[in-house]
Amino acid sequence: MSTPFYVSPQQAMADRAEYARKGIARGRSLVVLQYADGIVFVGENPSRALHKFSEIYDRIGFAAAGKYNEYENLRIGGVRYADLRGYTYDRDDVTARGLANVYAQTLGTIFSSSAEKPYEVELVVAEVGESPDGDQIYRLPHDGSIVDEHGSVAVGGNAEQISGYLDQRHRDGMTLAEALKLAVQALSRDTNGSEREIPAERLEVAVLDRTRPQKRKFKRIVGGQLSRLLESGTGEVSLEDEAEGDDE
């Protein structure tokens, strides 16, 4: 009888982490930035049906990089959690921190289980507050840890390089147009330092806009509205006057 092959727990976890990181790195990067009136989500996505960004609840948005089928399952689970908690208790009891904790438990359990492979996903859960000080952004890597972010965050692909670029240039109080342009500039930088052009039709953009009068703050920005924001130097483009940016 042959002796079973032994792998130390530390090596097994390191191998699982490396597997998940490589899977996430194959996907396109996305960024989430605070601006004066809310939080903007920007990513390169040629698909018009398979979204990287979604609404979870009134003030909460979801962003993900990695394998679509895996983060879509997590998104659906988050929507169900939020709906049930809001119905059972109160809508104000649904928070990004609570949702991040739920995702962290799920990802952590899957990552530490030897019966299944780790999820190849990295998530961002964001909640817009009544003021910029109340904004919350949480990043959740594949292992289920929670990182409280401020200002800007990048996940997927060459996220480390993009994060460094954003850290040097992002500032509080930016207009939406300024934040959007900065996000596109960061995403346009290749790993070798060169820049490429990302056309508007390949961008997926959404916002959590605290100035919207309705409870639901999530809004997609598409078409001519997106083009005008990219061309604008002031950010004075209304998000409410046009029907192009659809809610989810």
UniProtKB/TrEMBL annotation:
How is the activity of this protein regulated?
The formation of the proteasomal ATPase ARC-20S proteasome complex, likely via the docking of the C-termini of ARC into the intersubunit pockets in the alpha-rings, may trigger opening of the gate for substrate entry. Interconversion between the open-gate and close-gate conformations leads to a dynamic regulation of the 20S proteasome proteolysis activity.
User: InterPro entries, from UniProt?
Assistant: Ntn_hydrolases_N (IPR029055), Proteasome_alpha (IPR050115), Proteasome_alpha-type (IPR023332), Proteasome_asu_bac (IPR022296), Proteasome_sua/b (IPR001353)
Q: What is its main location?
A: cytoplasm
For this UniProt entry, the molecular function terms from Gene Ontology, in alphabetical order, are:
hydrolase activity
- Tell me which positions the record assigns to the signal sequence: none
Please indicate if the UniProt record lists Cytoplasm as a keyword.
yes
The record, for NCBIfam families, names:
20S_bact_alpha
Role this protein plays: Component of the proteasome core, a large protease complex with broad specificity involved in protein degradation.
The family note in this entry says: Belongs to the peptidase T1A family.
- Which PANTHER family does the protein's record reference? PROTEASOME SUBUNIT ALPHA/BETA
Q: How does it assemble?
A: The 20S proteasome core is composed of 14 alpha and 14 beta subunits that assemble into four stacked heptameric rings, resulting in a barrel-shaped structure. The two inner rings, each composed of seven catalytic beta subunits, are sandwiched by two outer rings, each composed of seven alpha subunits. The catalytic chamber with the active sites is on the inside of the barrel. Has a gated structure, the ends of the cylinder being occluded by the N-termini of the alpha-subunits. Is capped by the proteasome-associated ATPase, ARC.
What name appears for this protein in its UniProt entry?
Proteasome subunit alpha
Instruction: Name the gene behind this protein.
Output: prcA
